Amino acid sequence: MSLIVLCVGMLMIVLDATVVNVALPAIQDSLGFTQAGLAWVVNAYLIAFGGLLLLAGRLGDLLSRRGVFVAGLAVFTAASVACGLAQNQAMLVAARFVQGVGGAMTSAVILGMIVTMFPGPREQARAIGVYSFVAAAGGSVGLLAGGVLTQLTSWHWIFFINIPIGLVTGIAAVRVLPADDRSRARTGLDLPGAILITAALMVGVGTIVTPTGRYALPLAGAAVLLLAGFLVREATARNPLVPLPIFRSGTVSGANAVQALTMAGMFGVFFLGALYVQHLLGYDALGTGLAFLPTTTIIGILSLRYAERFITRFGARTVLVPGLVLIAAGLALFARVPVHGSYATDVLPTMLLIGTGIGVSGPALATLAMSGATTEDAGLASGLVNTTTQVGSALGLAVLATLSAVRTHVAEAAGTPHPDALAAGYRLAFWCAAGLVVLAIGLALVTLRPRRAAATAPAEQPEYATAGL
């Protein structure tokens, strides 16, 4: 029951992101957003969400993971009410920022609670498989739900639907999740470190999601300086917000870097893939959601039924690399899409390959990223995983969407018809996405090296490099 509560909370957060994307045209028409202003309906959420994940995870370690989870649900639900009631642009953007705060608090501690509540290797692999399915497949379900709600009701209901889910999940969380008040709270929060890392991540994510404009370069420089200041602070603080030795683990650092690269490739392609089936294949919002259902189905089957068996029998690293290869192959196949394509021959094979790859590699990657977490630092490790996921997704979307738009513009300037120019832009983005996943494969092979088993350890039980932990 505890796992169900945690995964429902995660599903609500994941669904919200893609549901909003589907409803953006309706929101623009209703509230009179310009194209640039409309982007802030998404950006306000991303900046708050990405900026607070690490802090929220650490607060869970120091105070109470259950408390942070429940408080996040309350903030997210209240902000959803404000979003649904919004009658002007400023109100909606402000409410979306607060929604991002609640989303960060809710999602940052979930993996930490999972690894502490399910300590056994087999049960932990099974629980992480369920979590990975929810995190990966929720986006596809969100596309379908967004199409249904927007077409049958109004865009306000994409936010109102969170209210009963948030209330029921919050009540259930108080009843079934174990209390975990942390005695370490008396050591005090590293307030300077918290301010520096939150500011660095917010400015950094803001720079990524709004990469153009006269302030982009100064903001990027400010993010780097804030991050450098944070590292200096953590190296000298008596009770650091983020103990730097966690990054000495080759497995933890490598898995998070692989996660960032993989998400950079996949998230941008899901966004552009949705545009491809809408603009070139003529699908509506509901049809787009249905087009991605095969991916969700395969992820569910593999994550829920087979991931735990694969990881327990072969080891997480052994399972990870073939999964990433399948994702890269699917992206490369997508890079060949024609202008007048067919879903059955040009899209479905890609969905099947990517779904299989995610279903195999997702749980393995989450297992490796949390492998060095102790009971005291599980919330921090969970927040770190979510931060790299969020930053990688935002960076991938910004880079791939920009490359696609530039390629389309160049093709149109050369006299290429608009549909052909669009297809050329999508193909370039898909090739770049495949390249990012190939880089992730190389990084996984280099950084996630199995250690030699100790002389007394059974040869069939591989260990993974966790130096410094």
Textual characterization of the structure:
The protein is mainly alpha-helical. The protein has 2 domains: 2-180 and 241-449, Up-down Bundle (Growth Hormone, Chain: A), CATH 1.20.1250; 191-240. The chain has 17 helices and 2 strands. It has helices at residues 2-31, 35-62, 65-85, 89-108, 110-117, 121-152, 157-160, 162-176, 191-209, 216-236, 250-279, 285-291, 293-314, 316-334, 343-369, 378-413, 418-447, and strands at 450-451, 463-464. It is globular. The relative contact order is 0.14. Its main location: membrane. The chain crosses the membrane at residues 38-56, 68-87, 93-116, 128-149, 155-177, 189-209, 215-232, 253-277, 289-307, 319-339, 351-371, 383-406, 426-448.
Element layout with pairings:
Layout: H1 2-31, H2 35-62, H3 65-85, H4 89-108, H5 110-117, H6 121-152, H7 157-160, H8 162-176, H9 191-209, H10 216-236, H11 250-279, H12 285-291, H13 293-314, H14 316-334, H15 343-369, H16 378-413, H17 418-447, E1 450-451, E2 463-464
Antiparallel strand pairs: 1-2
GO molecular function, one term: transmembrane transporter activity
InterPro entries: MFS, MFS_dom, MFS_trans_sf
Pfam family, one: MFS_1
Number of helical stretches of at least 4 residues: 17
* CATH topology annotation of the largest domain: Growth Hormone, Chain: A
Main sheet attributes: strand count, strand direction, barrel closure: 2 strands, antiparallel
The CATH architecture of the largest domain would be Up-down Bundle
What class would the helix/strand composition place it in?
mainly alpha
Q: Could you give the distance between the termini?
A: 31 Å
β-strand percent reads: under 5%
Give the overall average pLDDT. 83
How many E-type strands?
A: 2
What would the principal axes of the Cα set say about the shape?
A: globular
Radius of gyration: 21 Å
Going across the biggest sheet, name each strand in turn: 1-2
The CATH class label of the largest domain is Mainly Alpha
Q: What count of structural domains?
A: 2
Share of helix, binned: over 70%
The CATH fourth-level homologous superfamily of the largest domain: MFS general substrate transporter like domains
Order of helices and strands: HHHHHHHHHHHHHHHHHEE
